[in-house]
Each structure stands twice: as C-alpha cells, then as structure tokens.
C-alpha cells in the first residue's frame, strides 16, 4: 500500500466533494500551504491513487433512463477476453470479475429498452458466453464512486 498520511486523506476528501476546488480553497480547508496541496496531489497522481478527475453526471437528464445490471456466465478460459470486449462498449460503466452464480457483472446505462435488448443480444452472441441475467434498476438509492475515507 502506498505511503499516505492524514494530510493526503484530507486533500482526497476535499477533491471527492468537488474536484474543481482551487488549490487555495483546499489548502485553507486542510490547513496547509497551497504549494503543499499541489505537491501532494501530484504525488497522489504519480502513485496511482488519483487516476483522473471526472464529472459526476446525471444520466437520466442526458437521456439514459435505464440502468441495467447484467450477470454473465461464461466458459472459464475466455472470461478475461470477454470482460475486455464488454469494457469497450460505450454504455458500460462497470465490469466486475466476480464469484458466485455469475462470472461477470456488468453495469450499463441505456436510452431505451431497444438499446438494452440489442446490447444483451450482442452479449449472447459472444463466443463463450453461456447465459445472461438482466436486472433493471427501479430506483437509485445511492450511486457513488467515492467512499468515505
């Protein structure tokens, strides 16, 4: 595990709240110099702890009203290749290699049932995919890429 301290964690918390905060704002909240915040953020990036800064989007407002969670059963030797192929799909927000009833879990967002149907059929046509199980999200209670540190 990378060597980080409480100052790094405080900076990360501030960035999780709003990654567009200025270095000055973060420095004031954390209680360190602006240069320290700059250097710490660069350190966190070089360590791979911070991978990128992205906006949190309201997908329904962009027309993506359907979120599907799809379990996939596949032949063991092909799972990694299948996961890589699925990860290239534009609607896919997450691909997980999992234990349990399925080998792969996929989270994806769609503009319509027709687009979802086409996606599932593409999955089923992939070599080594044995079956899929699709669940539709009815209500989002919590959706976040951040955990409290």
TrEMBL record:
The keyword Lipoprotein does not apply. It comes from the Archaea. Pfam families: AsnC_trans_reg, HTH_AsnC-type. InterPro entries: ArsR-like_HTH, AsnC-type_HTH_dom, Dimeric_a/b-barrel, Tscrpt_reg_AsnC-like, Tscrpt_reg_AsnC/Lrp_C, WH-like_DNA-bd_sf, WH_DNA-bd_sf. Residues 4-65 form the HTH asnC-type domain. GO terms for molecular function: sequence-specific DNA binding. One of its GO terms (biological process) is response to amino acid. SUPFAM superfamilies: Dimeric alpha+beta barrel, Winged helix' DNA-binding domain. Keywords: DNA-binding, Transcription, Transcription regulation. One of its GO terms (cellular component) is cytosol. Gene3D superfamilies: 3.30.70.920, Winged helix-like DNA-binding domain superfamily/Winged helix DNA-binding domain (1.10.10.10). Signal peptide: none annotated. This is Lrp/AsnC family transcriptional regulator. It comes from Archaeoglobus fulgidus.
